[in-house]
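Our collaborator T.R. sent over the components below with a one-line note: 'Predict the complex.' Nothing else. No constraints on interfaces, no templates requested, no preferences about which chain binds where. So this is a plain run: every listed entity goes in together, and whatever single assembly comes back becomes the starting point for the next discussion.
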Amino acid sequence: MATTAAKETPIGYGNMKRKEDARFIRGQGKYLDDIVLPGMLYGAVLRSPYAHARIVSIDTSAALAHPKVHRVITAKDLETLGLAWMPTISYDSQAVLAGDKVRFQGQEVAFVIAEDRYSARDALPMIDVEYDPLPAVVNARKALDPDAPVIRDDKPDQTDNLATPLWEAGDADECERVFAEADIVVERDMIYPRCHPAPLETCGMIADMNPETGQLDIYNGNQAPNLHRTVYAQVAGLPEQKIRVMTNDIGGGFGNKVPVYPGYVCAIVGSIVTGKPVKWVEDRSENLMSTGFARDYIMSGRICAKDGRITGAQVDVIADHGAFDSTAQPSKFPAGFFHVFAGSYDLEAAHCSVKAVYTNKAPGGVAYRCSFRVTEGIFLIERLVGELALKMDVDPTELRMNSFIQPEQFPYENKTGWTYDSGEYEETMREAMRIAGYDELRREQAEKRERGELMGIGVAFFTEVVGAGPKKHMDILGQGMADGCDLRVHGTGKATLSISAQTQGQGHETTFAQIVAEELGISPDDIQVRHGDTDRTPFGLGTYGSRSTPVSGAAAAVAARRVRDKARLIAAGMLETSPDDLVWEKGRWSVRGDPEKGATIDEIAEAAYGEAPLPEGVEGGLDGQSVYDPPNLTYPCGAYICVVDVDPDTAEVKIRRFIAVDDCGTRINPMIVDGQVMGGLAEGVGIALMELISFDEQGNCLNGSMMDYLIPTALECPDWELGATVTPSPHHPIGAKGVGESATNGSPPAIVNAVCDALYQSHGVAHVDMPLNPARVWAAMQGRAEPPQ
Amino acid sequence: MEITVTVNGDRLTREIEPALLLVHFLRDTLGLTGTHWGCDTSNCGACVVHLDGRPVKSCTTLAASCDGHEIRTIESMEVDGRLDSVQQGFQEEHGLQCGFCTPGMIMTARALLDENPDPSEAEIRTAISGAICRCTGYANIVRAVRWAAEHESAEARR
Amino acid sequence: MQTPGPIEYERATSVQNAIQLLEKYGPETRLLAGGHSLLPMMKLRLANPERLIDINELDELSYIREAESEVRIGAMTRHRELLESELLATHFPVFIDAEQVIADPPVRNRGTIGGSLAQADAAEDLSAVCSALKANVVIVGSEGERVVSMDDFHIGPYMTAIQDGEILTEIRLPVRPGGGSAHEKVERRAGDWAIVAVSAALWLEGGRIADAGVALSAAGPTTVHATRSEELLRGKEPAEELFAEAGGLASEDCSPIADGRGPVDYKRHLADVLTRRALSRAAERASRLEG
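Returned assembly:
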């Protein structure tokens, strides 16, 4: 389904071409590495070749002798500043530069500052580090073995490799009862393997500390500029009002650019000690081997059904967090929102337990459009449902529709503590089936089976939980997850909207203008959206977990409505009537019953700044401000159908078709919504078929470059077939739910379900762990499937 | 050492270190930051420019090898305020989101259309198979190139 | 992005000049052709030459032509030119099959056949193509030129018969009547190295296989020349069962290692399947030519 942009600019929602494109198509985007400051120096990080080793000595003399090297910083230097360790979002600590030990391959050991990037790179091998290797903990299942070496011996009370204690949701006793009464139980161990968001632009920073004024300017493509400013102020003890974080353009985030990385702290320290701006940009292998990976959940799940309906789901998880716990999620939810794994079904019981372990691998876990572990939860339930359908020998769409939460049950309190806002699940499912020509596909499959051809049709239905979140439940590092918005309508009737959300390609300069346009009737072309500069935008927690539209979008709508309310008062004065006698149609207040008598927003704006007196109690200007504390999260959903053909001899999987119907409530710009979906679907293809970060027994990372970390090209992706249903969120000011991560959530289980659907009857394959590359699919066909790593 | 390269029509002479990669020559020496880089192993295609009219990965080309040759980058695509039809196509068909792969994609597509003015979807996908996009899922990029192809053939008919 | 270490750079003005420079500067000096094997290795600091001799200006080494019942390809011929060659499409379509799945279009604009063969990565496709086609390569040094068979050219992983001070200049493919050839590759993703790939060539005479070439990529420490499969095929009539048997022998005779692309049993299985498929297509192409 092609969604081409309309020729005219809609005053409000609708397809419109993106305003930000103008600079990108000309190569005039301003990404981090494009920025050059006078006198700027270049940093490079020396990284550990070992996964686990004591540091015996570090000799920087040869590097310092390089004619273009200015400084070499090690942990010892940072210790004097109290910055050798930094806090993580999960209230753990992470080494900025390793002092006593290295704890993952790729860990930061030293920071070189030189005249140019080539010299900085050349100087790295001149730093002589002596290591005493230690046995590495690589298998998360073995991390808690009694004889496993303790990785975090830097923590005084740590005697094992437990990173976070057991966290539970739901009712285990109820599960026992429901499973005991079920007609059928399916148990399945499955892994959501470690993968990586790998945005095309790697992470980096320019830190520019002015020694005279104490002003610290930070150029850094991160997804939460305000949160980062707060972290630097608290951690480095720098005055918050003198820190300015500027993101400019970001070449993809996907959760990779949420954390504060050691390289950032090194760049800041480097600028402080040299008195010059310091630029640090990581290369791709650093990105893959040290920045926030995604997933790595080892799950042991079961599902049951009675009378043809799904009745219970239960799962126990071991989460591999790497060497430091730097997972990013609201603080009261150490497993993020994984407990939405109960899914789209009206279950009688559900229960999950998650415990996290340390391993000698890069830290992370919450990233790659996971909506805080929702990807793991949705994969789990939809794979269990997929296998259940195979074993019950019922159609997977039938099984789901028999088990769905019904429209009249919303707002629906599920069995693990979530209150889903709205959904018309059957409608969404049927729309996907219609677009796919589902019955015809099943007929084709039957015919192909006769000829020994392996065609599979995979179904996935997901309910996401996004838009974190209500302050009473959700904070990150003690910062409530409310987002602010400032709207100023100028005397000429044009406007500037300052937001705390942080686009990394989502099109906020266009969509947020459209939100205000819809509320006020000002053309989006006349609304300038300002973002990414903590000096010029309000406080908020940034963009990840699909929260821009649910939280910042709501803030923008509320601010615009406040402007509209003020405009009403001014209009009442202009029209010499009571505000209660005015009615609004987009862009204009007019007198009820006398439509000729009105004032447009332009005219009201002019009056707001003009010389004529304003009504009693009304101040000049036409501004609106809001800080939006969402009353609940939002629950977009979707129905996906994937058609695959598996080569019976080589086991290659070819995705022939992919149908995706998403329901994200109000669609502000359908073209942009579809774009977000298609990008996520491609990520799902990657995760399902080829992306993997794996390690050998010594903890060496085997996928530290794009030659070994495989990302889909245009040849692996089909022409996506998209559809939509619209079920607004009842609690959201504009009924929008957010959609940024939906497709990454729904597509991997749809693809794996398709492959199992192709291979179950012929080869008895009920499950294969991702990635489903040819070797792994073939092993499954031989009955020899093994989890990766 | 000194090299003389024609970049976007301008003949330039610069002093460089022999190890300097073309991508850094363009970005750091000449300040043409429209060409990006995204990997270490010649996989991602963010760095694609035209060398003597053909798309190449500038991260895997020495600037020294370009002495006496012609380079064309994204900055050359808009002429006298008129966008190239490929650039227009990307905006018309929402063929970009974060914009980071976009210059490489546009240069790849431009070279394709220069040789094959009416490419099929399969030919377009093959032509861009050396460039990774993490944002768009590729379908709109294919549409963008088709838009440009159709636009140019309509212009040619006029 | 990673960057190469400091180097010296010179351009060769001719083949002879390149040889002179190699001799003058010694083994820490490398030839720079397309650069898409060497430069990535230099960026990762896996290769650290002191000096590069750039041979990209040597147009004299860029050709595909017929001479003396051979197709001769200059070592600097780019992958793209091989892909687009009518001559190769006519005589040796295995080249076209292979080039479609080698790397990606921008890389193919720079990478050369000489560079690929000289890199001698066991997973490299053109080595198998040339082996199956019974190619000889021409190596030139200050002593003169010598012609070496593909078996003698590939010595071990990343090791060829090219000595210090020598340059690979030409690949010679014997043209014989009744030939058909094909390349089959399975990869995890477009542009990736092969999990396993097979090149097969058959020459038919009077309805029987007069000669056969079967070679495998990524199935051993260097290109695997499946000689037992070839012996089995010679003299027989093309048939699916025969090809299946040849595939079985290739599977036994190769020595793949387990790595990120797959375990040994899957690779052996692919060797079998792809040999069968490549032979089948080669036979079909040969019989079309035979008429």
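Summary for T.R.: Chain B has five helices and five strands.
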